[in-house]
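quick q for whoever's on today - can somebody do inverse folding on this one?? i tried earlier but teh output was garbage lol. C-alpha cells:
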C-alpha cells in the first residue's frame, strides 16, 4: 500500500469506517463529501508545503464518519476524534503527535474557526471548500490557508463534478509525501 506504514491496509480501514458509521443514509455528510474534502485538502497541500498530506487525507476520511444525522450534530467532531484514536495501533499506526493533530482537526472542525497550524488549517479549509453542496458560499475570511482563498480553487469546488476515488486520492497523497 502506498501509505504504509501509517495505514497498513487502507481497504480494511475504509471498510471499517464505512461499516461503523452511524448515519449511513447521509447524502450531505457521507463518503462522497469525504472524498471531495480529501481532494480539496490535497490541492491545498500542493500549495502549502508545511501541511501534512497524510493527516489531511485521514481527516477527510474521519471528520464526519461519526455523524448521527445531517442536522445540528454538534458532537460529531469529538466523536470522530475518539474514533480515530480507537483505531490507532491496529488499522492506523500514527505516532502520538500526528494522532493528536488529527484528533484536534476532527474535534474542532465544526466551530467555524481558523487555525494557525498549516495541517489543521488545510483540513478545515478542505471541509469548507465543499460547503457548496449545502448551498452555502464559503467566505475566504474563514479559510486558514492562502491556498484555499485562491478564487480558482473556490470556483473549482463550486462546479466540481464527482470526486476522485479513494485509490486515486491515495496515489495523490503519496505523491505529496516527503
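ok took a stab at it. sequence:
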Amino acid at each position: 500500500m502506498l501509505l504504509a506504514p501509517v495505514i497498513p491496509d487502507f481497504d480494511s480501514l475504509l471498510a471499517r469506517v464505512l461499516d461503523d458509521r452511524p448515519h449511513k443514509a447521509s447524502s450531505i455528510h457521507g463518503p462522497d463529501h469525504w472524498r471531495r474534502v480529501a481532494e480539496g485538502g490535497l490541492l491545498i497541500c500542493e500549495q502549502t508545503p508545511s501541511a501534512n498530506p497524510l493527516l489531511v487525507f485521514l481527516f477527510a476520511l474521519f471528520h464526519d464518519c461519526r455523524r448521527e444525522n445531517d442536522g445540528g450534530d454538534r458532537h460529531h467532531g469529538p466523536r470522530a476524534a475518539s474514533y480515530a484514536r480507537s483505531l490507532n495501533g491496529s488499522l492506523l499506526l500514527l505516532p502520538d503527535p500526528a494522532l493528536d493533530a488529527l484528533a484536534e482537526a476532527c474535534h474542532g472542525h465544526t466551530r467555524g474557526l481558523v487555525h494557525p497550524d498549516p495541517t489543521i488549517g488545510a483540513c478545515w479549509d478542505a471541509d469548507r471548500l465543499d460547503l457548496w453542496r449545502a448551498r452555502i458560499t464559503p467566505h475566504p475570511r474563514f479559510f486558514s490557508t492562502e491556498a484555499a482563498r485562491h478564487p480558482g480553487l473556490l470556483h473549482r469546488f463550486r462546479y466540481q463534478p464527482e470526486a476522485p476515488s479513494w485509490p486515486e486520492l491515495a496515489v495523490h497523497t503519496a505523491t505529496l509525501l516527503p
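fwiw The chain has one domain: 10-173. also The mean pLDDT is 95. so keep that in mind when u check it
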